[in-house]
Predict the structure.
Amino acid sequence: MAMTAEPPTPTGPVADDATRRRELAAFLRSRRERITPEQAGLPRGPRRRTPGLRREEVAQLSAVGVTWYTWLEQGRPIRVSAQVLDAIARALLMDQTERGHLFALAGAVDPRPETECPLVTGTALCLMHRMAPYPASLQNARYDVLAHNGPFAQVFGDLTELPPRERNCLWLLVTSRRWRETFLDRDEMLRDLIAKFRAGMAEHVAEPAWKERLDGLLRESAEFRELWRRHELGAMSPHVKRYEHPEVGLLSLEHRTMWLAPESQAYRLVAYVPADDATEERLERLAELADGPGGACGTGPAGSGDGPVAG
């Protein structure tokens, strides 16, 4: 009896693409089935058997063709634009985490990466402001500064004056003249932060926001490119850094971190605590030089960094 050879199992990028498409299809179906017509602003109508929304309803809400959306849920090899993914994410009422997962599975860059992050709550902001006269900020795993208190602005600069994409510790260590001149341990800090960023990126390598941040740094700085090629890794640990403030002089600050979410390397409160009595006195003097109090719970003072943040 003649034997026929089975076709070889796809490997490499082709297999990866097929797996990604299957995951994307399953994810879209799961999100569609959990949304009720009422949540989407649609009438339920009689004889509805489909859990959640129908495919044609998602297509209608997203302004795309029914056949095209059906193919997407079937995992077919079709091209999908970021604008269409954005419309689908809105139609399926995805939160920021789900939206990021959608774009990662589709291999696309989110055109709206700076949507407000719900994890930066009023409680977290209140705690951050209560750290005064110590500088404090809320950061995510990419070292984006989501918010900061008044003392932080006095010591490191008011980041609300910068475009949202530049409110990032790595970006500022690479590009900011102020940070280069006042951070006495700037070169060591940059190497350490790049090593930590690389270690953290291992868990987020497929996420567009991480890739976008890395690509921007690689384009901007030959120094960053050289350090990135070393493949050094670092872990979170308390450490003391020195800053030369133009008004009060040398500040020796210990970085202390408190996690605000259970996920590894998630949102955190970073406090800059005096490492000696002289720094304690200088921070108190800096607070006296400020126009007002260091901040209160709620909306916070002007320049405190509250408001929409990059998730």
